[in-house]
Amino acid sequence: MFTTTGSRGLDKAPLSKGLLLVLSGLTVVLNLLPQYNHLFTYSLQAITLQHQVWRLVCGRLICLDLKDTFCNSLLIYNFRILERRFGSRKFASFLFGTWVLTALVDFLLSEAFHYLFDYQVSELPAGLLGPVFSLFVPFYSSIPKVPVTQLLGQISITNKSLVYIVGLQLLTSSPFMWLVALSGLVSGKLYHGNALGVQRLLFVPRWLSRVGAFVLEPLFSGPPPPNEPPLGMGATLDIQRQQRMDLHDQQVLLAQFHQARRNHRPPQNGLMNWNRFFPSLRHRGQNLPPEPQPHPSPQQLHPTPTAPPLVNTPVAEEQVARLMEMGFSRIDVQDALRASNNDINVATNFLLQHLG
């Protein structure tokens, strides 16, 4: 309800799924074997004084605290929308680039804190926290904010509120988490803005991306969710009737969209394939299909409705601009809004899920 990541789970986000499974699993293993925790602490003092450079890798991958792991996993799960939006290779390049940058910014911020307050920061929270905080930068600038509801009539709740609340919870989980968060935000701004050409220096090579797609993607990619709800598989008559109503609404909405395409312009090459269903949208006042017989035929189970006359409702330019900020073309945004009766939530979810 409060996020724009849709209901497609981890479909088309194999890297996010891999990070969730691997990092969470390693955290559980380390909590079962606490005698090895000292090898994965992110100790700045051990790195500078004892030259244990390997801690820059081990201490910045696995969370030792279960609460940090839980919040970090929730953020990775919600940020999977960025992997769909940018692609797995660009998403991996962003994580790798900010992971390298945060190693440098961590030391700069700790030295600045020591210089200003005469306090030496000897240890920071362990785990893949800096790159995850850096993902707030593209999430804030690339994902549009859609109002969902209001709390007490004054506080606006948007589709991104839950992500910020989880980030705030992670920020307050340990004393120096704020330093890791600030390091991640600075590194994310530097990489997202391509300061000093860091995107050309810190990236995942194409050959490595292909190897990862060939080896890891079959392990972490799952089947896409079904487009249609199953009809009649052990459900009650009320549930079956509701499923048929939802399917009928989807077909009506799709027919309306094709009608809008025919009315406004001829088909053009290079446009995206709209031959998919929108999420369920209730059209009040429309006639529902008749009740099925005891042994309905396939034509009765999947009727092809005729689109009702489509009113040429003007599209709000503000909504068009907000959706175009994500990189979608003006034509696709206008057609999505017309087909969804200017419902920006439906149009946003469809564009993000099928084009993100």
TrEMBL record:
Primary location group: membrane
Keywords, alphabetical: Membrane, Transmembrane, Transmembrane helix
Keyword Cell wall biogenesis/degradation attributed: no
The organism's place on the tree of life at top rank: Eukaryota
GO molecular function annotations of the record: serine-type endopeptidase activity
Listed GO CC annotations: membrane
UBA domain ranges (all copies): 314-354
InterPro entries: Rhomboid-like_sf, UBA, UBA-like_sf, UBA_UBAC2
Chain ranges passing through the membrane: 15-33, 91-109, 124-141, 162-186
Localization in the cell: Membrane
A Pfam family reported for this protein in Swiss-Prot or TrEMBL: UBA
Membrane-topology descriptor: Multi-pass membrane protein
Region (Disordered): 282-311
Name of the protein in question: UBA domain containing 2
Organism of derivation: Oncorhynchus mykiss (Rainbow trout)
Biological classification of the source: Eukaryota, Metazoa, Chordata, Craniata, Vertebrata
